[in-house]
Amino acid sequence: MNMIRLTTQSSSSLVLLYAFLVLSISLITSSSEYEDDYNFLQCLSQHSDPSILTYTSKDSNFSSVLFSTIQSLRFYSPAIRKPRVIVTPLKESHVQASVICSKRHGFQIRVRSGGHDYEGLSYVSDVPFVVVDLSNLRSINIDVENSTAWVQSGAITGELYYRIAEKSRNLGFPSVFCPTVGIGGSFQGGGYGNMLRKYGLAADNVIDARIVDAKGRVLDKESMGEDLFWAIRGGGMSFGIVVSWKIRLVYVPTNVTVFTINKNLDQGATKLVHRWQEVASELPHELFVRVSISVVNSTTKEGEKTILASFPSLYLGNTENLLAIMNERFPELGLERNDCAEMSWIQSQLYINGFPVNGSLDILLSRNQVKRYAKIKSDYVKEPIPETGLEGLWKKILEEKSVARMNFSPNGGRMAEISECEIPFPHREGNLYSIQYVVGWEGAGSEAAEPHIRWMRELHECMTPYVSKSPREAYLNYRDIDVGQSINGTATYLEGMVWGSKYFKSNYERLVQVKSQVDPENFFRNEQSIPAVAY
User: Boundaries of each FAD-binding PCMH-type domain copy (predicted)?
Assistant: First the structure.
């Protein structure tokens, strides 16, 4: 009995000792982190002016600032490491100070403009890090006379469209569909929307930029050199922090024409999508006909689901010309005059986002975005998928019990005319269209996410016979960590090629060379960044 009592006492003592050690280590770690944060903030104050805005976990609004532009709720939970400091620059010098001080005090840096990174790499890391949130750097200056504009990286796409329309009804810009996407991230990944067949990508229309490099210098196109300027237009955020961009604005007619045709399986959706594959990339450059695949309730079989194929479209011209083109090139869709609506280009941006076209344009200025649990993937298609393949695809989509969607965006036109090495974005001639896969669900945590992510991976695997091969191409702005990743951005050349070849094809080699020249210490890095190697 005494021995048992002694053992119990000894166990209690060990538990107390363990608790004391854990508490001591926690206090030491907390003290060390506080000192690191303090030294970083002191460094910022020495290298910038008092107007710089910073937030640490001790600030009451830290969480709200961090959460403000996070779109994917998968990457906002107590278990995920938070930044030690959030810096929200108001001027270029604040960005310079953030780079200098992060480097000096051993913090990794993550850069966020709109918060749409589908894998959270702009605001999540496994090591101590700071977030440079560019949302306050959002000025836009339109030069109508020269059809150019300077736009800062923290502006959102809707703001850019709005400011252009303020100045001219006949100018626009070929950027992304969603108005809350940040300029910085979209331009550095390519940035495509419904004018890509006429004018290419957003990145194709960048003519100058200002970047803070790994040494904290501000460089423009001339001082950064041809190679770095090439790399930042579609090569991702591996080279520095681009603060602002000079872009070439494009002509849009006074009125454009939009339409959306919806067809379910009973209405011949399979044959229409198959035919669309054959004609969409060959239509006139001014015509963009997209396909969106979703699951809806059947109108003929109560309690059952069916596939809906929607054809949301933009034509840079009038209804009369559009009908003539469609009747000749794609009569199977059955487009009629009363399906069409003419409006200004800026109103068409309201239309494609489901806003009232006669409503206030101020909705484009809103940074409020839908926050969701979701997983995204992408593909490129070079040959039409046969009807049997489409039928198999529909069957797989109907298995998913949550929200599943696919978007098919046609290539061709100007996209096929630009060389695949003109900028790092390589998905040009030879691709009929791109695919965006989307699955969303309710509920936090890995247990809720697992069946939906598993289904998405199965769907992606089912598509293997029908999409690009060697490499299986993917779009950087539809970031997908499944295509490959490194540990904390420390990939070798060969490891980086796993995802680099999919995103950039043969341009990966040149991106590595540029990275190795401008950031040899690999300061700007993430799990899918371009590696720096010694040549």
Answer: 79-252
